[in-house]
Amino acid sequence: MIIRKSDRKVRYESIRQTKTDFPVLTCAVVTGVVNGKETWYVSVGARPMHAALVEKEWEISKDTAEDTIAAYAKEAAACYTYGTNMRGSAAYRQHLAEVLIARAIRSILTEE
User: Of 73, 13, 23, 12, which is closest to residue 47 (Cα–Cα)?
Assistant: First the structure.
């Protein structure tokens, strides 16, 4: 794996039933400028399938309203399919994905 040095911001979030348990859902959000455009990458895993990546060209500023961030998170979460197993239902996982993506975006925007 090669990680190129660039000016990117990354956040990783996960939900587990206990600290040492397998995750119910994982989420990573990365932002940076690619080919002159602000690009956001969202990856959601443990759905219970392998992680999948979605690339979005959003322009989100630090003063973006919470409703707008929630709408972006909902849009990104809708790009994935979710499954049901003993750790959670598909609807529960989709809701968690929306929350984790929004939380990660907010965290990136508030970073100094």
Answer: 23
